[in-house]
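Re: the request from the purification team.
They wanted to know what the chain is likely to look like in 3D before they choose a buffer screen. I agreed to run a prediction and write the result into the notebook, where they can find it.
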Amino acid sequence: MDLLIKTKSEDIMEAEVLFVPVLKDDKAITNLIKSFDYEDESDVLSRVKKENFLGKKGQVFVIHDDQQTIVFIGTGQAKKLAAEDFRKTAGHVIAYLKKYKANKIGLVAKHWLKGTSDISLLAQSLAEGLYLANYDFDKYKKVDKENIKVDIKEIYVYLLASQKVKFTKAWDLGKSLAEGTILARDLVNEPAGIMTPQFLADTAVIIAKANKPASRQGGNITVKILEEEAIKKLKMNAFLSIAKGSEARPKFIHLVYKPTGKAKDKIALVGKGLTFDSGGLNIKPWEGMYDMKIDMGGAATVLGVFQSLVASNPKVEVHGIIAACENMPSGSAVKPGDVVRNMQGKSIEIAHTDAEGRVTLADSLAYAQKQGITKIVDLATLTGAVIAALGSQYAGFFSNNDKLAKAILKQAKDTGETMWQLPLAPEYKDMNKSKIADIRNISNTKGGGSIMAAWFLNHFIEDGVEWAHIDIAGPAYIEKSINSYTPVGGAGFGVRTILNWLRSI
């Protein structure tokens, strides 16, 4: 989509479909409609009254003539408008474009600014909503005429000339954040026969090549892929134990983003990279195994972040770390009751082979800390327990640092990627005790599965390291659409939150 800023009133007719936001109970609705100078103005105003169009959130009023279609969209009360309102409205715009099959659209941004003074917030949110709402993973299906992507050639945005530079910059940022989210969605939606450890590694290489110093806007990205022998030398035996049962060999992925100038901080993003999880020898029933292609959702989020890092240009050094493998049953698979050690030398009793992701993360977290990291955020489709607690709308959030938690949760709220902080309470700490090893990969008690999993991961966090764990098992893959810009399937959850958090440091 090409963004074209228009500042003259006569340019407004260039759009095939023009979207005009209307605030709730806006006393100027009549004057707004009159400003379009319709010959049958009285009939239009009569329709407004008849349909009781007041600009309430979700209300729509449409006018057709020979030249264009004008869609008045109710946005609700001005004082309550937030970024999420703009994203959702943009999603509704895409729905109408599918209906009218238009490829030149207009957005009258100046009317939205009655609800916010932040032109950057408006631009970024609108771009996110438009690009994300127009997403469809149609790679393996015939064209669905009812749900086809809109081929938007041009977007005309009408605003004041003085707002052009700021709007364009924020729009480009929103577009970039959406592109990272879309990559994450694509990765999660890929069938497991395609989405192998090698595929994840190849994706990381592609991202790094696209962001070489010669082509960079800001910083640059490098990548290192560790093969099995190198993984063995680092004594990542916990990770390797989970990969043993599969013919697809493991890959350990280490991406590094470095900004221009001195980095303000050094941060690691760790993503769970189980490209398929059968449960291992504790094999899942078919209902539980069907969608286990999504178990690399954390890795997808990390790769989505790196896709947009250079464009978003945070002033921190960022490490992306993914232990990619499959968890499969075979004669060589890890067995219930086995004991393995991670690269820190800590022993883990494998009480259940379907609690595998946390075992791979034990080595990923250890490796991250070897890089001199001060802050770690891991993202993982880790537990069914968090889905039971929070459903698909919220991710479970844990942290050992209140300041870090507050900063990330603020961004999550602003992006609409909602998270709920669960207690990393000391009462749960010892419930993963093992009789024969330093720790057990599942607890000895019933209930609180997501908390116990968080405590397991915390066992591998060294003193002084700030750490947050985000259990995205619920929102990583959506069975039913939750808003106008998030379709069924891979959601790309967490990409925009993490990127905005990195930019805020």
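For the purification team: Residues 164-189 form the longest helix (26 residues).
Please add any questions underneath this entry.
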